[in-house]
Amino acid sequence: xxxYSNDNPNDVVISFDEKAKIAIKEYSGSVYTKEKKVxxxxxxxxxxxxxxxxxxxxxxxxxxxWFYDWKNSFVVIDCxxxxxxxxxxxxxxxxMDNWSAHKSYxxxxxxxxxxxxxxxxxxxxxxxxxxxxxxxxxxxxxxLLNSNFQTVMEAIESISNYFEKGxxxxx
Length: 171
Hints:
By secondary structure, this protein is of the alpha/beta class. The chain has four helices and five strands; from the N terminus they run βββαβαβαα. Helix content is 28%, strand content 21%.
């Protein structure tokens, strides 16, 4: 919790996690219509799947996000390397949960060779302490609910547009 109040200008604190697998399908939500009742089938054909690791800079509110077809420890390493490039000459503290890919041997070895990157793990069962979870909640409410994307690319464009326009700023 001390990291969330870190005010050292040479430190960057990133709250990081992966959005649960996003299925590209028709999502229900609040629909206001007098003409008919809207029906969303419980089982429907999925048009594609999307993995979205993301992090929020807890000092500035900047959202860092990436899109992948899968998630594993090498995806986590790729995201961490992107953060190192984004913040040169800064100490980077990354807050993440205890998912096995976050604590894998590959991530530990990679972390050993990147001393500017400090990985901090939340206690088990305490994912609610990770600020990026609130961003995912806003993303689901603002973008995914009531959506009916036809392709994975359409979903990616909509999510990117949401973050680029400043959606879900959570400082």
